[in-house]
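Structure tokens please, single chain.
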Amino acid sequence: MGTIGLIAKFNFRRTTILSLAIVVFAFPMVTPAHAATHPKKAAYGAIAYEPGRRATGYSYDFKTAREAKIEALKQCRDPACEVLVSFRNACGAIAQGPGKPFAVTGATRAEAQTKALRRCGHQACEIVAWACTK
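Here you go.
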């Protein structure tokens, strides 16, 4: 094999090694296309309440908002119950004081309860119901 043959063989090996190195080091950095396009699965919840009797019903981790509301009304077991709050991938809370009830949502249980008590605004206000999706 002459000098030209050795140089050609060396360049082929170098090119092959470089190509393999690029594939090996670049491949783990590639993120699958579906990983970025699939957001967290939706989980719905709701709270039903009847202020006169303070009857409550709640639901969480349902596939649709409608299913969550229906379940909350079933749990409440009072014909006068109404769904006061529904939420998706979050929490809900209801505060009751001397006046009307206040229903809010929040990212966490603590946030929802704090917001409900703040909106209620009376010293006698208390949390009567809360629920969170997982």
